[in-house]
Amino acid sequence: MKLHTLLDFLPLVKEKPAENPEILSVENDNRKVNKGSLFICIKGLTNDGHAFAKDAEEKGAAAVLAERPLSLNIPVIIVKDTKRAMAVLADAFYGQPTKQLHLIGITGTNGKTTTSHLIEHVMLQSGSKTGLIGTMYVRINDRIIETKNTTPESLTLQQTFHDMVNENVDTAIMEVSSHALVQGRVHGCDYDVAVFTNLTQDHLDYHKTMDEYRRAKGLLFAQLGNTYDHEKPKWAILNADDSASEAFIAETAAHVMTYGIDREADFTAKNIQMDGSGMKFDLNYPEGSAVATLKLVGKFSVYNALAAMAACYASKIPMDIILASLEKMEGVPGRFELVDAGQEYPVIVDYAHTPDSLENVLKTVGQIAKNKIFVVVGCGGDRDKTKRPLMAKIACKYATNPIFTSDNPRSEDPFSILKDMEAGVPGENYEVIEDRNEAIRKAVQQATAGDVVLIAGKGHETYQIVGDKTLDFDDRIAAFQAIKEKE
């Protein structure tokens, strides 16, 4: 694509450079620049892309997009906000790929990953070719790509959608984080269905207040558009049991479909029956009722399943396919995942890393445990400190044997994080074992038949971030080894 053609998508760029080179790629990382690249200078938290513009030129960049004049021998196009401009240019350069996809976005504090996988499973069973973007990875058909953020930057995101279109994907399902919404990473994404799971305390280190956090989530529904296409309707799928949904209803012009357990909704679950291997419930939906059977457990899993059902129903998947597909779903790695080494007691690994998610998981464990409940839990460094004492309180409230340990301490002193947790539980009974592997071993060593061990906070993660190092660590492997050592 010619530079002038690409710049036509930025209406406030009035003076185009005299040169009109062919743009072969668009990059915001100078290390990826090749001959013919348009390099976009982005101001980050630690680095400023403007400082790398000269390096981009030396590597063959054809032009640079910047927020201030730069002394280069290639065209420099000045815009007020390069990050906003990048979203526009990425969408244009990659041929507006989301207009060729049925795009489902999922936002909320907890449940995004599980809900996205449930939807993906139904879509695959219905014959769709799918793409998935989320916390664990990007998946295009059967190809898995590692990812750093729940929701990538706009440039990476649009390139990913472009790759999906090229590989004949027709349905894309993605987790949409609050950070991504505030930072404009999903600008240009043409969502067909937007799903809200729940809103509980998290990321207050970034958003500062729960009201700001709620407004961030609401951007997904406000950005669904303000017009109606009866051939391709837009849907907002909202949790009727969460009060934040009332604000989202006011903020969206899209059609609204609700789900819930405690309040009246379009999709409701009643008479929930649960055991260690799964659950079933009476489902009411717009066209009738049915009995839903799942291999998942926990009230939170019911909400995730209802959200997935509503999203698939809005996507015109027949209910018999939806129910049959979800009945086969085994679960999602790191989400209430059983570690089975032949032991007499369940050992469960779960991503629960917020007060609400930890409470939900421990309540579910309480329905399974006959005797003691061991929970190994920590809190991440360089993140919301106010949730640390809350996590500790919940661990002590619902577990008989809480063990506080390290999560991903990052740049913080692990013992300082543990002290913040302990501040919430004066006089309570708990253990502090800073080494996470040792904490897991201690819980497993003490457990006997009828007990349950829950290892919370990291779930599917296969690493631990300590200082500036990323170390290999997997709760599931650590737990399996601890069980084997006990034999």
Keywords:
487 residues; alpha/beta; 11-stranded mixed sheet; 6-stranded mixed sheet; globular
Which structural category do the helix and sheet elements fall into? alpha/beta
* Rg from Cα: 24 Å
- Please provide the count of β strands: 23
Shape: globular
Oligomer: single chain
Mean pLDDT: 93
Question: What does the model show?
Answer:
By secondary structure, the protein is of the alpha/beta class. The chain is 34% helix and 21% strand. It contains 16 helices and 23 strands. The strands form four sheets. The protein has an eleven-stranded mixed sheet, with helices on both faces. The chain has a six-stranded mixed sheet with strand order 16-17-21-18-19-20, sandwiched between helices. A hairpin with a 2-residue loop joins strand 14 and strand 15. Helix 4 packs across helix 10 and helix 4 crosses helix 11. The longest helix has 16 residues. It is globular, with a radius of gyration of 24 Å.
Quick overview:
This protein has helices spanning 3-7, 53-58, 82-93, 112-125, 154-166, 178-182, 204-207, 210-222, 244-251, 299-314, 319-328, 355-368, 387-398, 414-422, 436-446, 475-486, and strands at 25-27, 37-40, 63-66, 76-78, 102-107, 130-133, 138-140, 143-145, 171-175, 193-196, 235-239, 255-260, 267-275, 278-285, 288-294, 337-338, 347-350, 373-377, 401-404, 431-432, 452-456, 463-466, 469-472. The chain is an alpha/beta fold and 487 residues long. Strands 8-7-6-9-5-10-11-12-13-14-15 form an eleven-stranded mixed β-sheet, with helices on both faces. It has a six-stranded mixed β-sheet with strand order 16-17-21-18-19-20, sandwiched between helices. The chain has a four-stranded parallel β-sheet with strand order 1-2-3-4.
